[in-house]
């Protein structure tokens, strides 16, 4: 990709702030010669932090001062009201004004979603933005949305999520005609709540490649490129999966540390365990997309290290270059033209 | 436990029928001298199957003929209408008539729930039965309900689930004063849908030990003895967890089979991998309880082998001996007397 692109980074967000965001930005600039990054936050501190960077990298780094930081436990409404000069909001406003093509933040998810929605607005035809992330599965990966932005969803919301998510899967090059599944507690048609059943009908009637209901265990068997659900269910499914993976890793460590013999076995098995750890490393999937907005906004895990945050920047870069919001807009236009839903 | 107990077993249910249920029944009889088992199903076939058993075991085995079997993909309403002499229904009716103290089946979950509800009825104060199972977590285990019987739940339903589940946890000896959590997408008070928020209020006002909202990942860190949720969310959470665990096991196998060197490492690490497999072996947790009925009904995984099915029988035995339905009934009585809810 040779297209030039400018990203705004909320440099103060997340658990570690500039000590993570600045090195990650530098690494991303090293990877993409066409990239420019605007670091938003405490100007003096950021200036000091970028001093030691190589001049060719520094040349594509700009700093925009913002005097406030949204706390990780601040409520969205408080952030909206009292943090008008936060690094998060200023970074989003750079997307709004067109100075930046995307914004990346490791800050408070609720505040990021609320601020992005308030400042950028949703695309026409989208009632609510949704959070979408990439999840590994056997022999591949899939995307899932919503992951917590929308607790209650109607069938129409779920349908909109499917449209937005499928554009993302296509643009990321994972599939030209993404297989879309609805997360449900069974695969038979009679299963599920009314919203899910009605969403299934909407998807069946559309030109999207709907593959039916997907159960929680089957989504890890590569049966769909996109799994659609309400934010409550999606959040619980994702976090349960993370919880089990962490528990198994812990078990594995415990078992190899049990005694001298198992420690020796652990040494012998080290390369295999490292390979497993790489495969399970959730950092590589860091960077959730806030879809449905008139601009690209990517959310990093708050606890991301520099390498993980770099992956979130990469997500923002790809979505900006691929102009995801315009593509979603165009796709919605096609769908509503083909079959007016309102 | 010296109390005598009679269990009715749907001998034809599950993927393997009598080839699994009969050896499992024999093993359970060997373990519990006070136990009697009634095998329900194809009389001639079951007679042949038990011929070779030791006489002291056989002496506590009875056979009850039933001419039909509920198919694994049959709808609950079809099973209710057309399978009045199914092994499942006859086994449930033995509980209804008092001939058996509990029923265990590896058959079709929907049909089992519908038949049990229709034939046994729910306890007074319980609107809907729920499915509860045991799940391993770091340093322990917890129980979760509902796992799929109730797609949509009100706050009152969730509260009833909490009462039923806490009685089960107490009776199983896991905790005298179970910590009860509500599954949610965040731990702050403002998070969640209306049902969950209202259920939190009901739990706070009760004398149950409510520990607050629990996120999907935190439930595997031993923060609650009982996690309460609607059946849609619970089913997705449980199956997602199973899917991830299966994927990681597969990864581990793949990595150890990669080449000669990793295969050798796998041999050296074998005892550790076996220990891990034992810890993750979901068969030990086989046997989900259908709570809220006027009788004990336990559902085994359809694909259970004899050892796994024996665990489900064990669950039924413990619940029968502990008289779980009466204890739930008594607990509800206390709660409604203390603070009339209607």
Automatic annotation (TrEMBL), chains A, B:
SUPFAM superfamilies: Isocitrate/Isopropylmalate dehydrogenase-like (SSF53659). It catalyses: a fatty acyl-[ACP] + phosphate = an acyl phosphate + holo-[ACP]. It comes from the Bacteria. Its EC number is 2.3.1.274. The keyword Transferase applies. It is found in: Cytoplasm. GO terms for cellular component: cytoplasm. Pathway: Lipid metabolism; phospholipid metabolism. Belongs to the PlsX family. Homodimer. Probably interacts with PlsY. Catalyzes the reversible formation of acyl-phosphate (acyl-PO(4)) from acyl-[acyl-carrier-protein] (acyl-ACP). This enzyme utilizes acyl-ACP as fatty acyl donor, but not acyl-CoA. This is Phosphate acyltransferase.
């Amino acid at each position: 990709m040779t297209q030039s692109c400018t990203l705004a980074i909320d440099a103060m967000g997340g658990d570690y702030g500039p000590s993570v965001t600045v090195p990650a930005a530098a690494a991303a600039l090293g990877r993409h010669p066409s990239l420019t990054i605007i670091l938003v936050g405490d100007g003096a501190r950021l200036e000091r932090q970028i001093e030691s960077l190589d001049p060719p990298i520094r040349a594509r780094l700009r700093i925009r001062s913002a005097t406030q930081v949204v706390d990780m436990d601040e409520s969205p409404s408080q952030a909206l009201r009292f943090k008008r000069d936060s690094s998060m909001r200023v970074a989003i406003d750079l997307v709004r004004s067109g100075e930046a093509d995307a914004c990346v933040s490791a800050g408070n998810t609720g505040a990021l979603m609320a601020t992005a929605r308030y400042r950028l607005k949703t695309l026409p035809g989208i009632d609510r933005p949704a959070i979408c992330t990439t999840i590994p599965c056997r022999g591949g990966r899939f995307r899932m949305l919503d992951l917590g932005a929308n607790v209650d969803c109607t069938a129409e919301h779920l349908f909109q999520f499917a449209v937005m998510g499928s554009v993302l899967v296509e643009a990321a090059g994972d599939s030209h005609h993404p297989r879309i599944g609805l997360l449900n507690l069974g695969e038979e048609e009679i299963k599920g709540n009314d919203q899910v059943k009605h969403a299934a009908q909407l998807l069946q009637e559309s030109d999207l490649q709907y593959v039916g209901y997907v159960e929680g265990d089957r989504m890890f068997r590569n049966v769909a490129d996109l799994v659609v659900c309400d934010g409550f269910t999606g959040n619980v499914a994702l976090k349960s999966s993370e919880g089990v993976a962490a528990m198994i890793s812990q078990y594995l460590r415990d078992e190899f540390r049990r005694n001298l013999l198992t420690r020796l076995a652990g040494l012998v098995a080290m390369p295999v365990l490292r390979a497993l750890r790489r495969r399970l490393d959730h950092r590589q999937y860091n960077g959730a997309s806030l879809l449905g907005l008139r601009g690209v906004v990517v959310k990093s895990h708050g606890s991301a290290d520099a390498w993980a945050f770099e992956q979130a920047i990469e997500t923002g870069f790809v979505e900006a270059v691929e102009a995801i919001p315009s593509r979603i807009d165009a796709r919605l236009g096609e769908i509503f033209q083909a079959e007016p839903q309102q």
